[in-house]
Structure formats: structure tokens, C-alpha cells
Amino acid sequence: MLFRPSGRLARALAPTLMTLQAAWVPAGAAQAQPHALAPAIDAQVARHYPGLEQLYQDLHAHPELGFQEVQTAAKLAAAMRAAGFTVTEQVGRTGLVALLRNGPGPTILVRTDMDALPMEEKTGLPYASHVQVDHLGRQTFVAHSCGHDLHMAGWVGTALTLAALKDRWQGTLMFIAQPAEELLGGAKAMLADGLFQRFGKPDFAFALHTWPMAHGEIGFNVGAVTSNADAFELTFNGRGAHGSAPDKSIDPLLMASRFVVDVQGVVSREKDPFQFGVLSVGAIQGGTSGNIIPDSALLRGTLRSYDPAVRTKLRDGLRRTALATATMAGAPEPKLTITPGGDATVNDARLVERAETVLKAAFGAQVKRMPPITPSEDFAEFGSAGVPSMFFLVGVLDPKDVEAARQPGGKPVPGNHSPFFAPVPEPSIKTAVKAMSLAVLSALQR
Fold first, then answer.
1. pLDDT confidence of 33, banded at 50, 70, 90?
2. Which candidate, 335, 374, 399, 400, has a CA 20 to 30 Å from the CA of 202?
3. CA distance 195 to 316
4. pLDDT at position 378, please?
5. Is 62 annotated as a binding-site member?
6. What are the boundaries of the signal sequence (predicted)?
7. What is the pLDDT, as a whole number, of residue 34?
């Protein structure tokens, strides 16, 4: 029987009692419905937020590139041990696995990524990154311009919240901190290191990602939610000459220029216009001086798609265009390497439906289904390994800025991979923790 005070004491204790009553589960009763635990989750989020903000700012100011996340992983390992998890480090090189066993029930995987980007931050934040490292032979700035720092803070916050509420659920939490998401290699590395053989195969998997939506908004899709990704590296070999004597050369820069233009014909003339497919060149390297025609040029780029047939068409078109470009110039066959990246992330329909019900009960109209996004994610590797999974997006920007950007002539908001990408920490982290906690609890229900 619940204690029921009266009079002045009842009025003073009313907010606290409402929270306790909403989350209270009688001994021997069935597990509480996840949405009924929302007040208790809010209380845990408020309790832990100061430490989460400190962790977020520390991670933001000290980013590390893929497979170099040594200090990042150490900070997360310490936080998870403090939360009561059993932690194993150096899984898939710099990854870690944190387990919390709490009786019989499903095993739920919750993933965060850890790596940052090789780019300069220009946010002007007091905790902005000024880190520089040697990357591909040159000094390069490093920045958390894709929000992985916020993912990590939310991941730790979710672990703390669920650990504090472990008398309300049963099962096993498998929290993994994954390296090298930006390289689309970290999930594969952890799986190749025996993730499921060593720690058990989870029943369900969850991950979230920051997105340039208003903070408080949550978006997801059933089916494909991110794209397939392939990287390519293409070298045209020609013949160098003086810039004043182009007739003596086989100009690789001209070949590179032609290729960049001509390869878009694969997208505009060979691919079904109603299916998504992108072929983008992101880097060209060649030459050292304005009066020297070099003997080679290197191009790097990416292929993105949802459908496997479109993926194959883009790969084939890339090869044909590269060979045709070199042949027209009388150059040797170019060197082309296509490196398969992540598959499309596909959300499990039943898992999404269960989580959607709980999230809408807690967040209302801020929860919405949305079309797939064009970036890629190696979280897909866990789904490809046979684990039903859900990947969702969390808005992190000021709603006023987002609304202003929608107006005619409005200034676009900085999105992921922009040097000006600057999530609003408190509402974004709190939403991430609450949403992920509720999603996990929805999967823990029998």
C-alpha cells in the first residue's frame, strides 16, 4: 500500500509522489509499461545531466579519428564501470563492450560511435576543438562535426538511467562503443573480433544519430533508413610535359576533368530517376606547379544508393567511364579501386512499431516518420548479421533557426559535416537519453 499524506504535507510532496507512483511496480507484478517510466527517466536525466554535459564538452574538445580513439574509449570505459557495467576494451582495435546482466530476458545492443572527422571546426564555441594530427601525411585538424560526441554523452546517460531503474526491467544490456564509423569499418572490425561469439548475440539493436532538425524532434523510418556506400579511388596515368607544350603530354588533369563531368551521365541517363543514386567525386590530387603538366592524377569519391541493383549499376558505370576516358586520351588503362562500405541500414518493422508507440506517448507530435536519408552508416552491419535493429534521428538545433531556414530566402542551418555544426547540448542530450531509454525498454517488454 502506498503512503498517502494529507494536508500541507501532501501538497508539498505532490510532485515527488506523482513521479514515484508513475514508476512504482508492486512486488511480483509485471514489468511497468515503458511510457509509465517516463517521469522516472526524466528524474534520472536531470540528476545526471551536469556530468553528461561535462563529458560532452570534454569529448568535443578532444576528438580522435577512426581507430585512434584511445583516450575517448578510456573515458567511456571509466564512465561505464562507474555505472555498474562490466567493460571489455580493445574489441575491434579501439572499441569497447559494456555489459549489465539483470536476470532472464532479451539482450539489447545499444551502439555509439566514437570517431571524429579530419576537418577544422569553425563554431567559435568555448569548448571548440583545436586538435591537429598527422593524417595521410599532413597535419590536419580534427573535429566532432558529425555529432558523435553527443551520441557518446547520450549513450552514457542511457546506461546510467537504465542501470538506476534496473528493478523495473529484466534482461541484458550490451552497450558497445564503436570505432571508425566515418570509415565505415568499425562495426566490421568489432564483428570480426568475435563480438557476438565472445559476448553473445543480441536479440535487438538500437542506435541514434544527430540530425539538423529542431531539438526535441525524433525521426525514423520502417525499412531502409540510410544508404549503401562504396568508396572509390581512381588514378589516371598520362605523360608529363612543360605547360607550354601540352602536345607533348597525355594530360591526366584533362582526363580527370572529363571524368568528373562524364560520369554524371551514369546517374542522369542510366539510373531510374525514381530511385536514389549518387556518384560524387570529393577529391582530386595532381600536379605541383602551374607550369608543369603532371604525369598522373588521383581522384577519390563515393557511391550511394538504397537499392542493390542501383548500387551495381553505379559501380559498372564508374568502371566504363574511367576506361573510356583514358582510352580517348590514348592513356594506359586507369587504376580503379572500389572499396565496399556499409550496406543500407534497414529498420525492423515490428521493433519500430513497438518503439514508436512508446516514444509518441512520451514526446507526442515531435515523433515522426520521415523518408530515408542519403548518408551511410555501418550500424547496418549488425542488421546484416541477423539482429533486428532500429536506427533513429534526434534533432539538435535551435527550433527558431530551423524555422527561419524554411522561410523563402532563409539561411540554411549548418548540418552534419559542416565546420559550423553546433548542437544545442542540453535539450539534445536529454532527448537522446530519454528516447533511447524508452526505446530499449520497449524491446525489453515480453
1. confident
2. 374
3. 34
4. 94
5. no
6. 1-29
7. 84
- Do residue 375 and residue 305 come from a single domain? no
Backbone angles phi, psi at 346, to 5 degrees: -120, 120
Contact 74, 80 (CB under 8 A): no
* 146 assigned ligand-binding residue: yes
CB 197 within 8 A of CB 385: no
> What is the extent of the structural domain holding 135?
33-226+344-444
Contact at 8 Å (CB) between 110 and 173? yes
Among candidate residues 81, 76, 304, the one with its CA nearest the CA of residue 178: 76
Q: What is the mean pLDDT of residues 187-193?
A: 98
CA 4 vs CA 8, 25, 36: distances in Å: 12, 17, 20
Buried b (16+ CB within 10 A) or exposed e, 227-255: bbbbbbebbbbbbebeeeeeeebbbbbbb
Q: Is 316 a catalytic residue?
A: no
Query: Does one domain contain both 168 and 306?
Result: no
Query: What CATH number is associated with residue 188?
Result: 3.40.630.10
Out of 64, 113, 121, 356, pick the active-site residue.
113
Q: Which of 121, 182, 356, 381 is catalytic?
A: 182
Residues 200-257 have pLDDT tens digits of 999 999 999 999 999 999 999 999 999 999 999 999 999 999 999 999 999 999 999 9
Give the integer Cα–Cα distance in Å for 144 and 279: 25
Is 64 a known active-site residue? no
Residue with cell 558505370: 317
**Annotated binding-site residue? 403:** no
CA distance 375 to 393: 12
CATH of the domain at 263: 3.30.70.360
> 242: annotated binding-site residue?
no
Is 130 known to sit in a ligand binding site? no
Cβ atoms within 10 Å, residue 140: 16
Q: Looking at the structure, do residues 324 and 369 belong to the same domain, yes or no?
A: no
Q: Terminal CA-to-CA distance of the chain, rounded, Å?
A: 26
